[in-house]
Write a structure and sequence with these properties.
Layout: H1 15-24, E1 27-31, E2 40-41, E3 44-45, H2 46-51, E4 61-74, E5 77-84, H3 90-101, E6 114-115, E7 118-119, H4 126-131, H5 142-146, E8 151-153, H6 158-163, E9 168-169, E10 177-183, E11 186-194, E12 197-203
Parallel strand pairs: 8-10
Antiparallel strand pairs: 1-4, 2-3, 4-5, 6-7, 9-12, 10-11, 11-12
Length: 207
């Protein structure tokens, strides 16, 4: 295709240069999404409009890169590890790192290793799923809702109150904010805890 830009040789950069640029892309950022992305423009993905030849204008989004580390380097190739907020475009992070270094950059591979409280170390292969028909690996649905969220024990008597969307007095509790209310391991509701009072927002039990 057409050459749109030329840059200095990436292998002329020192590791210190790379780490300094990484530091500048760590923390709260205003990030411009890639034009070839699923970002919606008037209800349609940006990449579809671009491929039709349209010129698209995207707005920057606020994201947070909590951790950004250089793990390994081989000439111009870097292996990086990123911990970031939802909505962060890793392709855009690579692009911006290349711009900061003045050499250009793009992804050659991307592997997600963690989502919330779930990590790749807990993953299983398709062969393992087939061999065991998946049953040993299936998690209850509430594992998704309770992952990384404090859970507060509820008395059995709270079931009818929660089913009606009413508050539950949990006594003296240290938890504040969004929590999962559970009883004997069963997720009953997700709600807000304040001064020992649980106000349900989503209820999963019937009256």
């Amino acid at each position: 295709g057409e050459v749109t830009a030329r840059h200095a040789r990436a292998d002329e950069l020192s590791d210190a240069d790379v780490r300094a640029a990484i530091a500048g892309l760590t923390g709260p950022l205003s990030q411009m999404p890639p034009i070839y992305s699923a970002k919606k423009i008037r209800g349609e993905a940006a990449h579809r409009r671009v491929r039709r030849g349209e010129t698209v204008a995207l707005d920057p989004v606020s994201v947070e890169v909590r951790e950004f580390q250089l793990l390994e380097r081989e000439g111009p190739r870097l292996r990086l590890e990123v911990a970031c907020s939802s909505g962060t475009y890793i392709r855009a992070l690579a692009r911006d790192l290349g711009r900061a270094l003045g050499v250009g950059a793009h992804l050659t591979a991307l592997r997600r290793t963690e989502v919330g409280a779930f990590t790749v170390t807990e993953a299983v292969s398709l062969d393992q799923l087939d061999a065991a028909e998946g049953l040993p690996w299936i998690r209850p649905a509430d594992a998704l809702l309770r992952a990384g969220m404090p859970h507060v024990p509820m008395p059995e008597s709270a079931r009818s109150l929660l089913a009606q969307g009413r508050t539950v007095d949990c006594g003296e509790r240290d938890e504040e904010g969004m929590v999962a209310g559970v009883c004997d391991g069963e997720l009953m509701a997700i709600g807000e805890m304040a001064e020992g009072t649980f106000q349900p927002r989503r209820v999963f039990v019937a009256s």
